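Work Package 4 report. The design task specified in the project plan requires that, given a folded chain encoded as C-alpha cells, an amino acid be chosen for each position. We show below one input record used in the internal validation round.
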C-alpha cells in the first residue's frame, strides 16, 4: 500500500478539511503531517459546523484512526479545547486519535515570542496567526525544542525551565512586556488531557499499517505558497507544506507516496501579509469575500481575494508532483458574468509563466484571459451532468493549462455538496 497525500496548492484555506472528511471513508488512517494550530480546517455535515486546528479531519468518521505526526507542533491549551469540543459531539477521542512522541510542543513563551517578533517588525510583519508556530519550529531546528514524549520523562520540568529561561532572555531583547503566570498555569493544566491521548512511535505505526495493507491519507495544513522553501518567502509559515513534508512529517519514504491530491479554490485568497499578484482591491474582490465568506477560520481576519493564478498553481503542482486536483468553491464564482484567470506575468518587456523569485521586486503584473461565467446557482447540483457548459469550459481550460485532471468539484461547504467527476 502507498500513502496518498492531500495538500493545499495556494495560500491555505482551500478547503482541505472538507475534502479530507469527504474522502475519509476510503481510508483506514488519516495523518496530519505538519503545521499546528495556525491551521483551521472546517467541516460541515448534519447541521454541524466544526473547525479543527491540530486534530486530523477524519475524526468524525467511524472506524478511522487519526494520527498527529512528528511534523506537527502542538499547543496543549488549544488541543484541550479541541478535544473537549469534539467529545461534546460524541467522539471518544482516546480511541481514535494517537500522537507522535516526536511532535514538538508549543510553549506559552513561543506564543509570546511570536507576538514580540511581529510587533518588532511593524509594517513588515508576516501577519502570523500568533500561535507560536515560527518560534516553535525555530527551537526544533535549533535543537532546543520539547517534544510530546518529554512530558512523561523524569526531567521534564528541568527541560521546560531551561527553554523558558532562554526565551525570557530573547523576550528581554525585544523589550516586550508580558504576564507569563496565567499562561503557564493553563498550559500545565492542559497537559493532563494531552497525557490521556496515546503517545506512539508514529513512524513505525504508519509503516506497520502500510505493511498490513491499510490505507493512509496524509493531511496537509496551510498551502504550497506558504511553504518555508517554495512559498513567497519571508511571508510564509515555518514548515514544509508541500508533498515532501508528508515524508519528513510522518516518516514515510518517498517511494511509498501514492496519489497526491492538490486542492485549489476556483479563485485565490490569502490571509496575512505578502505578495498576491491577482488580488482584487475592488468591488469584485469584496463580492468574492462576501459570497465566499472569506474570513479566517482561526483568526477571523478578512481574507484577501483575487482571480485564479495559473503560473502559481502550476508551480505548486510541479513541486509536489500532484496527480489529481480538487477545485473548491465553484459556487462562489456563480455571481460573475465573466471570470478572469491569470495565465502569465509581464515582467518588464518579458512574458513569463514561471512563479517569480520575488513578485514585487521583479514588478510582475498578471496577464489575464477572460472566460464566460456560468451565472447559475451550483449549490444544489448533484452530479457532473448538471454542470453548466461555462463551468465545464472553465475546468477544461485549467486542466489544459496544468495537465492534471480535476477529479472533484466542490459546490458548497457541506459534505454533500461535492461532485466526483467521472474519469
Ligand atoms: P482549510 O483550511 O483548507 O481546511 O479551509 P478552511 O476551512 O479554512 O476554509 C474553507 C472555507 O470554505 C470554510 O469555511 C468551508 O466551510 C468553506 N467551503 C469549503 N468548500 C466550499 C465550497 O465548495 N463552497 C463554499 N461556498 N464554501 C466552501
Ligand atoms: P490552513 O491549514 C491560511 C498564514 C498566516 C501568515 C503566515 C504565517 O487553515 O489552510 P504562522 O502563524 O504560520 O506563522 O503564519 O501563514 N497561515 C495561514 N493562512 N491558512 C492557514 O492554515 C494558515 N496558517 C498560517 O496568515 O500569513
Ligand atoms: Mg483554514
Amino acid at each position: 500500500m502507498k500513502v496518498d497525500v492531500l495538500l493545499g496548492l495556494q495560500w491555505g484555506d482551500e478547503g482541505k478539511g472538507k475534502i479530507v472528511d469527504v474522502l475519509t471513508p476510503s481510508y483506514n488512517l488519516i495523518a496530519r503531517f505538519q503545521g499546528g494550530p495556525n491551521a483551521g480546517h472546517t467541516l460541515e455535515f448534519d447541521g454541524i459546523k466544526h473547525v479543527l486546528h491540530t486534530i486530523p479531519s477524519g475524526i468524525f468518521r467511524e472506524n478511522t484512526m487519526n494520527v498527529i505526526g512528528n511534523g506537527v507542533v502542538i499547543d496543549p491549551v488549544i488541543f484541550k479545547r479541541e478535544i473537549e469540543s469534539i467529545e461534546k459531539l460524541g467522539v471518544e477521542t482516546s480511541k481514535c486519535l494517537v500522537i507522535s512522541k516526536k511532535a514538538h510542543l508549543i510553549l506559552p513563551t513561543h506564543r509570546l515570542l511570536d507576538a514580540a517578533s511581529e510587533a518588532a517588525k511593524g509594517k513588515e510583519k508576516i501577519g502570523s496567526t500568533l500561535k507560536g508556530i515560527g518560534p516553535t519550529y525555530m527551537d526544533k531546528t535549533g535543537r532546543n525544542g520539547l517534544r510530546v514524549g518529554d512530558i512523561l520523562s523524569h526531567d521534564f520540568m528541568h527541560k521546560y525551565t531551561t527553554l523558558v529561561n532562554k526565551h525570557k532572555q530573547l523576550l528581554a531583547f525585544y523589550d516586550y512586556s508580558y504576564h507569563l503566570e496565567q499562561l503557564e498555569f493553563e498550559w500545565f493544566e492542559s497537559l493532563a488531557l494531552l497525557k490521556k491521548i496515546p503517545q506512539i512511535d508514529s513512524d513505525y505505526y504508519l509503516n506497520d499499517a502500510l505493511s498490513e495493507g491499510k490505507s493512509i491519507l496524509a493531511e496537509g495544513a496551510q498551502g504550497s505558497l506558504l511553504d518555508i522553501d517554495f512559498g513567497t518567502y519571508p511571508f510564509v509559515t515555518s514548515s514544509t507544506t508541500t508533498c515532501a513534508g508528508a515524508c519528513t512529517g510522518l516518516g514515510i519514504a518517498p517511494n511509498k507516496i501514492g496519489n497526491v491530491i492538490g486542492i485549489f479554490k476556483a479563485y485565490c485568497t490569502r490571509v496575512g501579509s505578502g505578495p498576491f499578484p491577482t488580488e482584487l482591491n475592488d468591488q469584485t474582490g469584496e463580492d468574492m469575500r462576501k459570497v465566499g465568506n472569506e474570513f479566517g477560520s482561526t483568526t477571523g481576519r478578512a481574507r484577501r481575494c483575487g482571480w485564479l493564478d495559473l503560473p502559481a498553481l502550476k508551480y505548486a503542482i510541479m513541486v509536489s508532483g500532484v496527480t489529481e486536483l480538487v477545485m473548491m468553491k465553484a459556487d462562489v464564482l456563480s455571481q460573475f458574468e465573466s471570470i478572469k484567470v491569470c495565465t502569465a506575468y509581464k515582467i518588464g518587456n518579458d512574458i513569463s509563466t514561471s512563479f517569480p523569485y520575488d513578485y514585487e521586486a521583479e514588478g510582475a503584473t498578471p496577464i489575464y484571459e477572460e472566460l464566460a461565467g456560468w451565472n447559475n446557482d451550483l449549490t444544489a447540483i448533484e452530479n457532473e451532468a448538471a454542470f453548466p457548459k461555462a463551468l465545464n469550459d472553465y475546468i477544461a481550460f485549467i486542466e489544459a493549462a496544468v495537465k492534471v485532471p480535476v477529479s472533484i468539484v466542490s459546490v458548497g461547504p457541506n459534505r454533500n455538496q461535492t461532485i466526483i467527476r467521472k474519469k
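The first helix runs from residue 16 to 23. Validation will be extended to a larger panel in the next phase.
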